[in-house]
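Open question from group meeting: does this chain pack into something compact, or does most of it stay loose? Before anyone orders reagents, we agreed to write out a predicted structure and look at it together. Recording both the input and the output here so the notebook holds the full record.
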Amino acid sequence: QVQLVESGGGLVQAGGSLRLSCAASGRTFSSYVMGWVRQAPGKEREFVAAISTSGGTTYYADSVKGRFTISRDNAKNTVYLQMNSLKPEDTAVYYCKAAASVATIQDFGSWGQGTQVTVSS
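Structure tokens returned:
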């Protein structure tokens, strides 16, 4: 299992930007599909974005497509989520995920502790 630690959350006004980072431990980071999921109070967990092991392929939820960008640096064992044009509905706890595939990233694999993102209107 890989250990994940998120950072970069906070409070931002609508239209603003934040960049989340997720540092992973272990030598096998580059073998994991990495991603982000979020959960808002009273709502179900939601897939946000994922990136392939090489970083060559990315996947996004329709709700964030065009506003969020996921990237990874395998040399630094880190995955990022650049969030632009934030909306109040983006408010949630964001979790970094490591999994064997995109299909399993929402519900399986390793979890970070989560970082709160709050977007004020």
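Observations to bring back to the group:
The mean pLDDT is 95.
The chain has no helices and eleven strands.
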